[in-house]
Amino acid sequence: MKIYVDSADISEIEAAQALGLCDGVTTNPTLIAKTGKSMTQAIKDICAIVEGPVHAEVLSLDKEGIIKEGMELAKVSDSIVVKIPMCHDGLKAVRHFYDEGIPTNVTLIFSASQAILAAKAGASNVCPFVGRLDDISVAGSDLIEDIVTIFDNYPEIETQIIVASVRSPMHVVDSALLGADIFTIPGKVLTQMEKHPLTDIGIAKFLEDAKKFT
Ligand code: G3P
Asked: What is the CATH number of domain 2-213?
């Protein structure tokens, strides 16, 4: 199991690293915009502190544009994984990067058929978005189950499943029960995963009782 931090915020990434919970980082244009930095600067700053893969997303939707942007991003660091939105030309670009030996992540996956195409195109990773499916009353965990089952049925598929759009600890637990490879988790959810009210009550009681020591 791998845990990535779904953030472009350096302090959030460092907080996860302090717990040994940062096997990699995923970003997207929304997360980069929150930093107030340029894409290149934000990615450079993350690569400077993270040892594992750093996923950086292209904005282009045409094959040539995706390849150009992806190659530029890949120059920033050997850790870069080129993140490509699921689209027709994106699949063509994935094949190009596969041939070049540059790892990719096909993102915005909302169906098992999209995951199959991305895997066959040579994607190193696919990012199904569980939270956004739950938002529209479709069970995100059903999609994870389908993709896990399909990829397990065909051992030659090496594409890793990164569970994304994680909004709650249950998204992680449900996906872990299904055997997803990687969870990309915002700092807020990592913190929520630590907490249980009975743990807090238990600690308070132990400390209270410790006052009775002779
Ligand atoms: O990695 C994609 C993820 O950040 C999307 O999350 O919460 O915007 O659906 P969300």
From this structure: 3.20.20.70
